Amino acid sequence: MKHKSIYAILLSTALLASCKKSFIDRPALDATTLQNYYNTKEEVRSLTSTLYGLPWSGYENRAMDAIGDVMAGNEYTGGNDDPPFLNFSFASTSVRIADAWKVFYKIGGWTSAYIQALEQKKAEGGDASFIDPAIAECHFLRGTVYFYIGRIWGPAPIVTDPGAVALAGNFNIPRYFKEDVLRFALEELQMAEAGLPETDEPGRVTRYAAKGMMAKLYLYNKDYENAKIKAGEVISSGHYSLFPDYAAMFNSSANNNNVESLFSIQHQLTSNPWGSGNQKNPDRGPSNMQTSEASMWELYAPSMDIQAAYESGDLRRKGSMMQHGWTKPEWKPVNSNPVYNAFMANGYVYDTIQPVGEGGQKNTTRANIAKYVVGPGKSYGGETVLGMNTGINTMMLRYADVLLIYAEAVLGTQASTSDAGALDAFNKVRTRAGLLPKTSITMDDVLHERRVEFAFEGDYWFDIQRQGFAKAKQIIEAQNRGTFDFEQHVTFSEQYMYLPIPAGEILQDPELAKEPVSYY
């Protein structure tokens, strides 16, 4: 994506209106803005570019890990805010839950305000040739965040006119049934599909991104026929393929917006990178890789259970995790200890035997996450890192997902399938991983493949959840959620299938504590 367009933020939309509720957050878009701006394609695309980066940071940074992978048993964690997701003791006062809520309703509010402003601009004579695709972008992003909202909270508010709510001062907004939230998300994605172009500059969502997200939503709803149709349309388009080097997608920003990415959160390093930079590097990177340029504090680490999940010879293991013997010759971290420097002289080595402080690495699970770790900084053989911040994008929907959605949709409710199309899609993913193809697949095969393919990408919890409580309980209680030294198992109850509404929101809007109502 061209940086000048995707990261440009118009002054008129940078200031946020002050609203009582986080779920009616909206940017200030007044009549002066409509008269003076959005007269050119560049101005309109600058408006929608604001939706691809900064607004996602509160979810992407930590809440995504806590919800998508810690809760799912893929990550082990410490600190104060995340362990409740490991042992299912989280409460409505959780910082991670509040952060995720704010992000999704902020994006929902911004997209709603943008849609209204652009529709008004078009009604006043604005050029539909570039306004309509921008409106469709907003529908894609609004549909996507409501898909997350429905999966994370189940019943939840739907707000399409945050400005009117703010002006009216009536903040008693109810929760709507989960089915209605997901229906709303689907309708938004359908409008996006109808209005987005088939191709665009790298990083911008297209009609096929909408089709892919619709396929994922259909699969979540167990609408296998429509999931198959939409995934099949993406596959047959020929616009996407699997990136040949699995690991390289996640360790270098040089591969941003690659041929596998349908939708990514966009990042850019600037002189002041807060919000524009990706902050997964320090939360995942090993402490023995810290340098004067790159912070590393390894808040999240691979669980013992996910380490045991990979088949022998699976190339995704090295692309996803650092374990004893993992190397990256081009990364050459240096510190003040000559023993350490000698150990790392030929490139970074992940070693659990070498003494800590002299190049050794020994955390609670004896492993670190490799995805979205871009290294120790430019002076040390890597790319530019500014403390916590890197420039790598976070992929939210990949072509590998579309392939596995197609395979699962063909399988549907059958015990197994040997369908040629399903096997072709499924085995493409396995072949890239260096594994032998399968001649038939079951649901357990699909879930296993999805787990290792998308490990540490914030997705596995939703795969567990959509199996229903009984199967989710079976999966979770079988997991080893402990450390290298102490195996640990948890008891899972149905109340944790969805997250609670943040306590602060209920205090301001008691309707959120009541039973959900119908939206349609």
UniProtKB/TrEMBL annotation:
InterPro entries for the chain: SusD-like_N, SusD_RagB_dom, TPR-like_helical_dom_sf
Biased composition, class Polar residues, residue ranges: 270-280
GO cellular component terms, A-Z: cell outer membrane
Subcellular location: Cell outer membrane
Main subcellular location of this protein, as a coarse class: membrane
SUPFAM superfamilies: TPR-like
Domain RagB/SusD: 280-515
Record PROSITE patterns: PROKAR_LIPOPROTEIN
Residue numbers spanned by region Disordered: 270-290
Keyword Cytoplasm assigned: no
Family: Belongs to the SusD family.
Protein name: RagB/SusD family nutrient uptake outer membrane protein
